[in-house]
Amino acid sequence: MRIVIGEDSALFREGLSRLLTENGHEIVGTAVAADELVEVVRDVDPDLSIIDVRMPPTMTDDGARAAVILRAESPARPILMLSQHIETRQVVGLVGTGGFGYLLKDRVLRVGDFLDAMRRVVDGGSALDPAIVAALVTPTRIDDPVAALSAREREVLALVAEGRSNSAIAAHLVLAERTVESHMRSIFQKLRIDEAPDTHRRVLAVLTQLRQ
Amino acid sequence: MLAYGPPSIGEPADWPVTTALLLPALLLGWLVVVRAPAGPIGPALALTAAVPALVFTAEDWGTTAHTSSPWPAASAVDKVAVGAWPWLFLGFVTLVLLFPDGLLPGRHWRWIWAAMPVSAVLVNFVVSREDAARTDTTPARAALIVIAFAAFLATLLAAASSLVVRYRRGDQLTRQRLRWLMAAAVAVPILLGLSWLASALGAPGTLAYTWFLIAMLVLIPGAITVAILRHDLFDIDRLLGATVSWLVTSLISAGVFAAVVLAAGGFFPDRVGVTTAAFVTALVLLPVYHWIHRTVGRLVDPDRTVALARIRDFVRRVRDGEAEPEQIEAVLRSALDDPGLQVLLRRPGSELEPPAGAIPLQTGDSVVGALVLGTTSARRVRRAREAVVEARLPIEVSRLQLELREALTEVRHSRSRLMDEVNAERHRLERDLHDGAQQRLIAIGMRLRSVQYQLDPGVPAYRELDEVVETLEETVAELRRIAHGVRPSRLDDGLAVALRHLVADSTLPVDLVVPELDVGESAATTVYFTVGEAIANALKHARATRISISVGLNDQVLRAVVRDDGVGGAKEGFGLTSLRDRVASAGGEFTVVSPPGAGTSITVEIPCAS
């Protein structure tokens, strides 16, 4: 696939380009700053944009802001955010939309998983780092519906948020698929979400609920 | 001495009576001249007494013309002296026109002053001529007499009215000074007019004239004395006190001497009696003087005694811990009756520039402050100097406290600056870890992966590279934890988000109430770490089952309360002390309430300017 990388660290950018090229992808553009990135993506219209959250000019969350801009222009554009640590402030609006991923940078070292995540994002799914999901599902108040979930249900929910199917979750947690399904029902009930046929929509609904 | 005339003439009591009448004004004039030699008030007072002395003398001199042994030129003197009485008022007019500042109330008042001798000459002339004529008064002469007397009375009234003008123009203090004098001065021409009326109606001349003379020679100096003593003119009370004390002491000493001589004379030869008397007198002289001086001082200047007693009482209360030394300014204000008084203290590291006329406060050789008076007069300045000596202790203590307070403030500021720098340094370190070391390690990992994928998965190196990259991953995670400990990067998302993550790691149920807050880095970091430490303490020591945390910003104060339902009884140990230090370094306050068996409540309050 055709990929644009927005990353200010040359070392990381070159390493990732090389890794992706070796795995049969094409790097069609790179950018070292947020505004430059927005222009490059507009120009080349890649299949996937991989963006570092922290970029020049301010070295805070310019990458995330650029992603928000790009998404506003073209809502279906697949974006995979990378970050050194968990920062949710800017991207919280994007989490849960289709074709969006957010991973810690060290996940690229698990090359296979990383390529899978890229594929899911490009296909319109989501790929969220467990640490980031954990951060998002942290209950903050007593009346937060997430607080009502059991530890196991939260675990399941985190895996759902990563974009995994019920069977994948069952395999991951070493459970019967039926058990996972009953957990899901319980989660929807506690979060007061009507069951809908589409798994993806359920994920969105869950994440929308989480964002409150 | 005064109004000297031959004792054969008139009443025997005349001389002592006139002397007694004239002496007060003369003495007062002398005292004022000593205190304020440049001003005309002293001479004017002396004139008030001296001119009547001359007039009386001239009158007595003239009277000898009708006796068997007349004085030289007695009949000529008698002609003039019979109408000389208007001159009695020369000193009075001068005094009322010039009191209290020695200046006329306005340019036009010069005419009144000039009118005084003119009208006096006129009256003197018509009265003398009338006396010499020894014929019935013609209507023309009668009219001249009426005009002369009316002009003279009008001049006196005008002069007295100058005080009324001054009174109406003057401020509070001037009015207080003038009140009594004004009454006395207006009384003089009125009494004069009345006395003319009385003598016209047939009253004996002496009786008629006595009243205005008493008014002029007793009431006027009396009123001026009141103005001088009560209302800070010329600072005369000290001199008066000393004079009276010496006078009384001398009298008592003489009395003692005489008494001892008399008593000893009966038993011993003369010389022994005199020697004993001298010895006894010398023995009692000093203590008697001191006692009299104090007593006279109390009588002459009761304000001073009261003021100093109040300051002494205040100093005693400061010593006993009943009053704060900082109240010294208020105490001095009320003791010296000066609401505008200020105590200026030198701030450490700066030079004090006392305004002109301020009374310096000294410790050793250095000036540590100044007393600025709202109302100045020689007397007030002297009293303030005495007060400063009495109030040395509280002034010095409040200066030291001021110095201490400023030093503490400076220390607090410098600590808070230091802490800001530490926080900035942590921030930089965290960034360096994330953007530098971590990125490099991941980049190395990616290159290793690239190398790995060029190998045949079957070779041992392939598996080894897998392990190396795994170790690298762990190292990156480790670095992230370290960076988080240096400064939690979640704080970038705001204190609320960071705290939510913090409590999510807790193994106990935590009720967290925290709104989105916009507070400074230092306050946020401090609250974050304090709450973290408080949770850790609750987990480790308190055997709590539930923790509740509430954080809020109110009136620019960031307030965090961490409460648990554990065993309580938390003691100030290393953990709490370091928390307290951390909070204090951000300029905040740290409170622990931990009664045994009733849980622990930790409160952090940090002022936030932003």
TrEMBL record, chain A:
Stored SUPFAM superfamilies: C-terminal effector domain of the bipartite response regulators (SSF46894), CheY-like (SSF52172)
GO function terms (MF aspect): DNA binding
InterPro entries on file: CheY-like_superfamily, NreC/VraR/RcsB-like_REC, Sig_transdc_resp-reg_C-effctor, Sig_transdc_resp-reg_receiver, Tscrpt_reg_LuxR_C, WalR-like
Organism expressing this protein natively: Kribbella rubisoli
CDD domains according to UniProt: LuxR_C_like (cd06170), REC_NarL-like (cd17535)
Domain HTH luxR-type intervals: 142-212
Domain of life: Bacteria
Pfam families in the cross-refs: GerE, Response_reg
One of the protein's GO biological processes: regulation of DNA-templated transcription
4-aspartylphosphate carried by residues: 52
Domain Response regulatory: 2-120
Keyword terms, alphabetized: DNA-binding, Phosphoprotein, Transcription, Transcription regulation
Protein name, entry field: DNA-binding NarL/FixJ family response regulator
From TrEMBL, chain B:
Record-annotated Histidine kinase/HSP90-like ATPase domain positions: 522-610
Top EC class, one word: transferase
Protein name: histidine kinase
Entry GO CC: membrane
Annotated Pfam families: HATPase_c, HisKA_3
Entry's Gene Ontology molecular function annotations: ATP binding; phosphorelay sensor kinase activity; protein dimerization activity
Organism: Kribbella rubisoli
Taxonomic classification: Bacteria, Bacillati, Actinomycetota, Actinomycetes, Propionibacteriales
Record's keyword annotation contains Zinc-finger: no
Gene3D superfamilies in UniProt: 1.20.5.1930, Histidine kinase-like ATPase, C-terminal domain
